[in-house]
Design a protein that fits this description.
Low-confidence stretches: none
Strand order of the largest sheet: 6-5-4-3-2-1-8-7
CATH architecture: Alpha-Beta Barrel
Strand content: 5-15%
CATH topology: TIM Barrel
Order of helices and strands: EHEHEHEHEHEHHEHHHEHH
Helix content: 25-40%
Number of helices: 12
Radius of gyration: 18 Å
Distance between the termini: 48 Å
Number of domains: 1
Mean pLDDT: 86
Number of strands: 8
Length: about 300
């Protein structure tokens, strides 16, 4: 029986602070012209971090929107805000950072709960104790490429969601054996462009974490094939782990999975728009959506 299967895909979109200007334009469009977009998808959260956020991790990027403006926007549209607090190199002294703590306090108590994407168990314990209203997401920066390790992470009660390494996306035999509760916690990274066989992914994330802490380290240079070419959506679509809209509708939703993360914080809002056109917008309305965004003179797409 399919009566209990999820009927909608819940997208988790990039650039909470980084692309505030983009979402300030796009979210009204999404609400006012819902007919432009697939009825089987919704925006569950937008994730990101302010500029100079030392708890931040993942792809290094900037976000200079005022937190009060961001708070007002997500609260108005009933979308969960998620902080990318995925720095893997934190120590106890970093937990006292005033800016990060102020951010947590500010976003507690919204109509839709806010969350934090974390790597460090030290930070996870601290947030659970001091900001219990924030739900926790286990970050893909842990590179849980072993299904057994991923399964252990799913069993941790402190996490509401777990983002596995993208190389587990097509492990359908074992994914299908997960319980309904476990399936509800899985959040697949759909559009990763990193080489499927890259062995330096964790090193790359660790390097970003050190630089976010202000440590004097050189930027990691990936030696995997194509690692020096930057992100290309056309290449991501060829990745063996890529999850497209047909996969979501025909495979993942019927299997009982409903959470899908799109990467793109460091890629620019023009490319994020392309993701939204592909994953959420009906083909016959893609021009209308593109025009509405591009013709707004306040939006910087470069």
């Amino acid at each position: 029986m399919n009566v209990h299967l999820p009927s909608k895909a819940h997208y988790h979109l990039p650039g909470l602070f980084e692309f505030y200007d983009f979402y300030r334009i796009f979210l009204p469009l999404f609400r006012e012209h819902r007919e432009y977009f697939y009825d089987w998808c919704e925006i569950a959260s937008i994730y990101g971090a302010p500029q100079d956020c030392i708890w931040g991790g993942g792809r290094a990027c900037c976000g200079d929107a005022d937190a009060r403006d961001v708070l007002s926007l997500v609260d108005e549209y009933g979308i969960s805000a998620r902080f990318t607090f995925s720095n893997s190199m934190l120590t106890k002294e970093h937990l006292l950072d005033r800016g990060c703590n102020a951010l947590c306090s500010m976003f507690e108590g919204l109509n839709v709960p806010s969350g934090a994407i974390v790597h460090s168990d030290l930070l996870a314990d601290y947030l659970a104790k001091n900001y219990p209203a924030l739900y926790l997401v286990s970050s893909t920066t842990k590179v849980l490429s072993s299904f057994d390790d991923f399964l252990l992470e799913l069993k941790r009660n402190e996490f509401s969601y777990v983002v596995p390494d993208f190389r587990l996306n097509k492990e359908f035999k074992r994914l299908g054996l997960l319980s309904r509760e476990q399936k509800n916690k899985v959040e697949f990274l759909c559009n990763e462009c990193c080489n499927f066989f890259c062995s330096e992914r964790k090193l790359c994330y660790e390097n970003v974490s050190r630089r976010n802490l202000g440590l004097d380290v050189m930027e990691h240079k990936c030696t995997a094939p194509g690692g020096d070419g930057g992100y290309r959506f056309s290449l991501a679509k060829k990745n063996p782990a890529f999850i497209g809209i047909a996969d979501i509708v025909e495979t993942y939703l019927p299997m009982g999975f409903s959470n899908f993360k799109l990467e793109g914080r460091g890629l620019g809002s023009a490319l994020v728009l392309e993701f939204i056109l592909y994953y959420m917008t009906k083909p016959e309305y893609q021009l209308e959506v593109r025009e509405a965004v591009y013709l707004d003179s306040m939006l910087d797409l470069f």
